[in-house]
Design a protein that fits this description.
single chain, 456 residues, mainly beta, Tachylectin-2, Chain A, Jelly Rolls, four-stranded antiparallel sheet, 33 strands, disordered N terminus, signal, CBM13-like, carbohydrate binding, Arabinanase/levansucrase/invertase, Galactose-bd-like_sf
Amino acid sequence: MLALRRIIVGPLALIALARSVASVDTVIVPGAPWTDTSGNLIQAHGAGILTVGSTYYWFGEDKSANSALFKAVSCYSSNDLLTWSRQNNALTPISGTSISSSNIVERPKVIFNKNNNQYVMWFHSDTSNYGAAMVGVATASSPCGPYTYKGSWKPLGADSRDESIFQDTAQTAYLLYASDNNQNFKITQLDSNYYNVTSTVSELSGATLEAPGIIKRNGVYYLFASHTSGFVPPYSEYYSVHISSSLHGPWTSQADIAPESSRTFYSQNAYDLPLGSNGIYMGDRWRPDLLGSSRYIWLPISWASGSPQLVQADVWSINLSAGTYSVASGTTYEAESGTLSGSAKVASGSGFSGGKVVGYLGHGGSVQIKNVQGNGNGQWVAVYYANGDSTYRNVTVSVNGGSSVLLDQPDTGNGQVTLSVPIKLNLNNGANTITFGAGQSNYAGDLDKIIVYQQG
């Protein structure tokens, strides 16, 4: 499992931002705090999605205790994939078993078995040091359960760590999992009850894949999986797609689903959901030092080029009835066109918008971007920056001379590679001035541009 760090620091800033998102957002903003209908941060990491009629159920790991140890498998419901209501916990710890509060339960996936009229949950079951490498199974008579734990074991006697479940149109179901100390990737068929595995139908030897998911499109199976990398994203090839006309293979490798330098926009796959002729990539941006504040990176998957590609989108929306998505358009303001103060300097580079970036922000340097047009409401602003360090930086952001908010900037893997992080700002109707880097003693990431969206 890939683990990352922070987006926005400061508990007051997190709470204020989360509440504003809960009250008005009708769009998906990758990397922003996402709250449920009660205004609480959604705790459903390593997601699995179940569709029952017109209702979607989102299962995931509750990391609110900021620990990798098992607290609960949460269950949320929604009719639009945007507004989520927390239901009862689907699965909770049982002392003296492999799913106690001292154990690991990750990546829960639920499918419905028409033969026995049961909802069946599969998950990665492990010890705290990840030495057991098992799957776990639980069952229920309703989507959110609660689920009855059936047991944990090694499928066909082999390791299973990161896993997922795929249910084909004929109601046959398959376990997708990283096996043999993460060296080999396996697809194994489930029995008719979905309680156990029967036989391995395909194996990608030496593939070193994890975080899997499958979308079936026009009779072709697309296997999405990241290369194993521990707790940091690699700086070269990160994500791969394998295709086949049969789950039995053979599998052919395709191009990555995102530019290699983006490291899948600093995220790891959790689930892949079909959306008409498109799809939705549902990933996590892990924060290992405060797991409960890990963010969700949901992005459209498009086949417009002939192979699946993630669509970079700061703000986007879904039309479920049409099976389509729409990426919002915003207004771009280049940082180098702002007013620089102190040690701030303009630098050049081919990886930047307009070929230029503002560096040496913080530690006495700042930049003001003026005449930013607002609509008088809270608006999403995407901040594009570069941070070539191996650790996070952060930057202060203030509007019209008001109090500042500290925005975290994950490392971008290279000083010439940019990443965007979202922040919601209350802009006046008409012209505004946004200041970056003022009043902080440390250096911020180099600021490339901001994109201001009407939505918020």
